[in-house]
Amino acid sequence: MGMLSQSSRFLGWAGMVAVSCGTLSPWAAAIAYDAPVRETLIELALETPLTSMETQVIRQALRILPPAHYQSLRQLEVRDEPTMQPRGRANSSTIILNNTDIASEDELFSVLLHELGHILDLGYLTGSSGEITAFAYGSQPVRSDDPSYDYYRISWAGNTTQLPTARPADFVSGYAASMTFEDFAESYHMYITHQGRFVSLAAQNPALAAKYTFLRDRVFDGYQYADASTGPYPDAVYDTTLLSLDWKRFIQRQQSLPTERALTAVPLHITMSEDDDNPSV
Ligand SMILES: [Zn+2]
What we know:
Blueprint: H1 12-16, H2 26-32, H3 35-41, E1 43-46, H4 52-63, E2 75-79, E3 88-90, E4 94-98, H5 105-124, E5 132-137, E6 140-143, H6 147-155, E7 156-158, E8 161-162, H7 180-193, H8 195-202, H9 206-219, H10 247-253, E9 269-271
Parallel strand pairs: 1-2, 1-9, 2-4
Antiparallel strand pairs: 3-4, 5-6, 7-8
Helix pairs in contact: 4-5, 5-7, 6-7, 6-9, 8-9
Zinc ion is lined by residues 114, 118, 182, 185, 281.
């Protein structure tokens, strides 16, 4: 029990903001990936044992991502909290999944990918030397050299202030329109699992086209996923993690991903930790 032991790789948010990402090239990071290092990166804190299905969902969701995307993830908790609590929360280094209100393994897959979008956005896509912008994560200002800044600026003037020109159709969901960080996480999830829908929406909307292009070119280095959707799509979407998909079929279609060989065996450690800084989004 207790804190993680792996020293200087894990500096928490205060340390992470000092890390300069430079040009994001996640697939390059994937190629350079070294399996023994991966073992230290993720620890699961469990109140109750995971079912084998939950373990599979977590392993496979990580497996289809460039490892750089969850480089800052150091703890993943699965809880059985009271109903009506958020199904997932994340900061730059911790994900907490609340299984109580997650209805299916497909939904668990989607919620986890949404939270991993926060991990990438807050923990890996960071700036250090740029000017202070109108955006902030907690007490930490977003710097202009933070790659996410270019995404936020598509629709936002500040964390929760949309640009005067923004319209509901500029967001992949109602939840995405609630704040910058949710906009990023919702689009990240949409890009991975609902590629076809995102492409068709982007063809009709310049803001969504800019968001799609940002994700494709700067986050996924041009990689486009197979489509996980089982459709049809409702006219109005509040939460992309509730859109129907088939996660198992989707994973089967992703077997040829360049990260495949790097993530064949993801060790899962069981620990408890008090480190809970600001898991709010
Ligand atoms: Zn979120």
